[in-house]
Amino acid sequence: MQTLDKYLELFQKNRKQIGKDDPPFMKKLRDTAIASFRQSGFPGRKEERYRYTHLEPVFDGELSFDFQPRQIHFDDDEIFSCDVPLLDSMVVTVLNGFFHHPGKEALTRLDNGIIYGSLKEAIGQYPDLVKKFLGKNAPTSDEPFVALNTAFSQDGIFLYVPEGVRMERPIQIINLLLSDKNHMVHHRNLFVLESNAVAQVIICDHTLSPHMFLTNSVTEAYTGENADLDLLRLQNEHNNSCQVTNTWISQERHSRCQHGTITLHGGIVRNNLRINMVGEGAETSALGLFLTDKMQQVDSYTVIDHRKPQCTSNQYYKGVLDDISTGAFNGKIHVHPDAQKTEAFQTNNNILLSDTAKMYTKPRLEIYADDVKCSHGATVGQLDEEALFYLQSRGISKEEGRLMLMDAFTWDVISKIKHPSLQERITELVGKRLRGELSRCNNCAMHCQE
Length: 450
Known about the structure:
Structural class: alpha/beta
Number of helices: 11
Oligomer: single chain
Strand content: 35-45%
């Protein structure tokens, strides 16, 4: 109750700053969210969804919070540049939860009708459009961290792709954390693809200073009829960070979506993914790959809701764990009574590189239709000793053989990344990570240490 009361008091004391420029619908949304959070509170140890990751102690730490963007002056190009060869993308930056745009427009509207930039600015300029989608797919009553984000978040990234428009270049969102003290961040993303629209979104999460950071983010995505969304998140934060992500995707009739999460680094990472297939014939693919060592902890929770007939989903999650790190996967396929002709498949494979690493896995099927094809499975094991011996018999050292087997293990996920240059760069980063090298996917001048 003490932690809950602390956040309720923080919200009430700073209510005017948080909702300073809110239109009526946002004020109502925040009030509903804080009421939901007051009722639910933080999930306890007995909460099944958070059985392996107790987050309340992290939120109870001494953390600063910015209710308005801080004036931090630095040259993006000098301090941070994303080193992905040949990735011709539209880059937008979020600094400590606020859209960072020195000398640039906060919101850009292209000639073809695409709108992207600051969510806060979009709420002001296009309130009716934002109101139609914001908070509709990620209810505050279902997930306490969504409720907390809805109450506190003030900015993030907004993307709107109108009917029949194809984004020729991906949009790359770079979330940067930079502070001289321990800091908490809430930011929100809203992606809307109208019917027959196509878009690719890349989200990169990075820490630029060694202080403790706690991030609670929410991303809502809507794909209209026959739309195509490719959403990839790359997490690369230091070991003194905690990140909670909530991604909610709604798919209309015959839409296609691929969601991927690559976790290279992070102290405590909790990734929640919920995909609602509300249109007939929708297709979705959920990919996950995490690499942990030391005392790192990565927890993935997924729910794929099949609500209409003839929808297809594939979940493919893999983990490589070393030292005394911990991993968890809790995945659920929910087939509703009307969702006949469903095809849904779920796989979770994990490798433990030490006797002290732990992996908890719980794949689940909940089926209320009788004409379906569904399967689920999970494995937790070690590297194949026979394959390793075979490589050694061909003159390959034991250490290099181990790396080859791990590269092959992770490639199953990486190979499904659609953008060739991004796939190439992530392959390189994963290889460095497996070799114990510092695996920042940037030329960061800060040179932060773990």
